[in-house]
């Protein structure tokens, strides 16, 4: 088994899934901080990612995290004005970030459509790529072959019903990107149409990639993505970490998995 081989955990329902994922993420951050002094997590938009953040906020164990030594990044963002309630960062603030003592300099929100680049989503994406490259210690101009993003401890991804992850949609140009780490996305099938997204090479630099899917509307996507199609047809199948790739599911989302993929024990 390689790090790209998905490990599956199936929980009874989406509430338990969010609570167990929260406990798992708290532990992972505490372990990374104990080992390296700091930790880095990439957040996702969507209901499952938000439920995970809310479960962390409700957990007494959240006080085990040294929030001031945590870097937060985003896997994608809806390209809207900075205070728009549909922005992933605005939702993350409401669910958790406003309730914990983060260092604002370590909260790396993706640019908004009313920022310095205005409505130029490609310039905004390039700005985020530069911020990531700086954090990775590899200036964009260095020509370094290493991908210019930090080795994130955990990168979270919600899985869409069409197998999209971040804002990488099946058969869209973004899923073919091999050079850039961050792209502007236009014409996304999930509103809003204009978005910023990490690319698959940037996602694959993470130590651990955790994919979250709950609910019956995800069952086909989960079964398809785990049945070995190419990432062009099923972007979720191209998302894996250098150390571990974990699919966190509820029973409804796992319902159509081929029997040989269903984990022997489900919590
Ligand atoms: O900005 C977004 O919309 C996302 O980051 C997107 O990729 C999301 O994670 C999936 O669509 C799953 O969303 P749900 O968890 O709501 O199903």
UniProtKB/TrEMBL annotation:
<protein>
    <recommendedName>
        <fullName>6-phosphogluconolactonase</fullName>
        <ecNumber>3.1.1.31</ecNumber>
    </recommendedName>
</protein>
<dbReference type="Pfam" id="PF01182">
    <property type="entry name" value="Glucosamine_iso"/>
</dbReference>
<keyword id="KW-0378">Hydrolase</keyword>
<dbReference type="InterPro" id="IPR005900">
    <property type="entry name" value="6-phosphogluconolactonase_DevB"/>
</dbReference>
<dbReference type="GO" id="GO:0017057">
    <property type="term" value="F:6-phosphogluconolactonase activity"/>
</dbReference>
<comment type="function">
    <text>Hydrolysis of 6-phosphogluconolactone to 6-phosphogluconate.</text>
</comment>
<feature type="domain" description="Glucosamine/galactosamine-6-phosphate isomerase">
    <location>
        <begin position="13"/>
        <end position="247"/>
    </location>
</feature>
<comment type="pathway">
    <text>Carbohydrate degradation; pentose phosphate pathway; D-ribulose 5-phosphate from D-glucose 6-phosphate (oxidative stage): step 2/3.</text>
</comment>
<comment type="similarity">
    <text>Belongs to the glucosamine/galactosamine-6-phosphate isomerase family. 6-phosphogluconolactonase subfamily.</text>
</comment>
<dbReference type="InterPro" id="IPR039104">
    <property type="entry name" value="6PGL"/>
</dbReference>
<dbReference type="InterPro" id="IPR037171">
    <property type="entry name" value="NagB/RpiA_transferase-like"/>
</dbReference>
<dbReference type="InterPro" id="IPR006148">
    <property type="entry name" value="Glc/Gal-6P_isomerase"/>
</dbReference>
């Amino acid at each position: 088994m390689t790090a790209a081989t998905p490990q599956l955990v199936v929980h009874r329902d989406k509430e338990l899934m969010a609570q167990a994922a929260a406990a798992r993420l708290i532990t992972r951050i505490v372990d990374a901080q104990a080992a390296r002094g700091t930790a880095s997590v990439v957040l996702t938009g969507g209901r499952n990612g938000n439920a995970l953040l809310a479960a962390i906020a409700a957990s007494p164990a959240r006080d085990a995290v040294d929030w001031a030594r945590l870097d937060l990044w985003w896997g994608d963002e809806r390209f809207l004005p900075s205070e728009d309630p549909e922005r992933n960062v605005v939702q993350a603030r409401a669910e958790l970030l406003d309730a914990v003592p983060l260092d604002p300099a370590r909260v790396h929100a993706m640019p908004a459509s009313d920022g310095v680049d205005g409505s130029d989503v490609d310039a905004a994406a390039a700005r985020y790529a530069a911020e990531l490259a700086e954090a990775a210690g590899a200036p964009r101009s260095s020509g370094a072959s290493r991908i210019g993003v930090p080795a994130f401890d955990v990168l979270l991804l919600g899985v869409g019903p069409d197998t999209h992850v971040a804002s990488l949609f099946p058969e869209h140009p973004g899923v073919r990107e091999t050079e850039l780490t961050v792209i502007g996305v236009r014409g996304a099938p999930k509103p809003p149409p204009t978005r910023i997204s990490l690319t698959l090479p940037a996602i694959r630099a993470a130590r651990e990639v955790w994919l979250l899917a709950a609910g019956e509307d995800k069952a086909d996507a989960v079964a398809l993505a785990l049945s070995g199609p190419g990432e062009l047809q099923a972007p979720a199948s191209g998302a894996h970490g250098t150390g571990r790739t974990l699919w966190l599911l509820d029973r409804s989302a796992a319902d159509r998995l081929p029997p040989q993929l269903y984990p022997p024990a489900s919590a």
